[in-house]
Amino acid sequence: VEYVTMVPEQDTAYRESINEYRAACEARAVKNSASAEQNSTSFLPQRQISNYFTQFRK
Question: Between the N and C ends of the chain, which has fewer C-beta atoms within 10 Å?
């Protein structure tokens, strides 16, 4: 594994991407508020959780 530092533009894009995913997740949680007692993995499909990490790396 090789670690590289992000240039400021990449850092900004990375943070924006994370914020977009957070907003989408919060909107989904509000939409599914009827099942609020359940944890987040119960209404987020496994593939969607995997996609979060893929999107964050872009």
Answer: N
For residues 48 and 29, is the Cβ–Cβ distance under 8 A? no
Give the contacts of 43 (CB within 8 A, at least 6 positions apart).
28, 29, 32, 35
Distance separating alpha carbons of residues 10 and 1, to the nearest angstrom: 19
Render pLDDT for 12-43 as a digit per residue (tens, 0 to 9): 988 888 888 888 888 888 877 755 555 555 55
| CA 31, chain centre distance (Å) | 17
Q: Is the dihedral of CA 23, 28, 34, 39 positive or negative?
A: negative
